[in-house]
Amino acid sequence: MARRYALLDVFTNRALAGNPLAVVLDGEGLSDERMQAIAKEFNLSETVFVLPAENPAHSAKVRIFTPGRELPFAGHPTVGTAILLAHERFGDVEGDADAVVVLEEKIGNVRCGVVLKGGAAGFAEFDVPKLSSPSMPVGAKEPIAAALGLSPHEVGFENHVPSCFEAGVPFAFIPVANLDALSRAKPQMQDWDGAFAAEPHRDVYVYCRQTTAHDSAFSARMFAPTMGIVEDPATGAAAAAFAGVVRHFDELLDGTHFIRIEQGYHMGRPSLIDLEIDLDNGKLHGVRIGGQAVVVARGELYL
């Protein structure tokens, strides 16, 4: 059976940048084991399988797999799939076209607003289905620094210290002093378990305040070697959880805050993730993730 698929680059407005994504449009009838094998075959950070929606009012049900396991939610697959399904609905557009795409993910229903522009990258923004909350404490600076190949004095800046937050997928958030430290961070697998052995801290988001782009607020890298992802060019699920980090350490005032995160620059795949945070009475009230994506290839799987 021929199954259509598309490849997209997400959180970018040009091909061969951002985070690549595979979307299998005809996923019906595939077993869990077959989906995992296909994701391993594509060997991208994530592969999405599109299935008929359980609720006919929704756009699709989706399953999201890394090369190593299934995820209940992920950001760049949500953005990329929403833009692709809007393209499937409207085809090539000459002006602007707006769409609402509702994806049934394992975490719940994710509502996405999509804007297509003729001859330009599409844009999607979605409401994060689960607000960021603290998870288990992380360890001391010394083992964390060793696991990243850094010195302990390079871990932390201002009042930011290592923490763990989750918005569907947990991450250990490790602040580092500057871009130089961020560029030198590299998983040291002989020390990884010593720093991050206790679940759910094995996926690590390293960030600093210093940035490359003038309009970015943070620069970040994400390492998930135990998920089959040595480094991820852009991680929307981590950005969703990062909302809790920023609220906690930066003590934001009530209202709406726009934060742009740059990621992937150290991999030669620059990515820009838009994070919007709504605060009410000092608490997270709403979080949105947005970004662009372009379709770079289409094909068929003969499976």
Automatic annotation (TrEMBL):
Record's signal peptide: none
Domain of life: Bacteria
Keyword DNA repair: no
Family from the record: Belongs to the PhzF family.
Organism of provenance: Stappia sediminis
Name under which the protein is recorded: PhzF family phenazine biosynthesis isomerase
MF term (GO), any: isomerase activity
Swiss-Prot/TrEMBL keywords: Isomerase
Residues at the catalytic site: E46
GO CC terms, sorted: cytoplasm
Phylogenetic lineage: Bacteria, Pseudomonadati, Pseudomonadota, Alphaproteobacteria, Hyphomicrobiales
Pfam families, alphabetized: PhzC-PhzF (PF02567)
Keyword match Protein biosynthesis: no
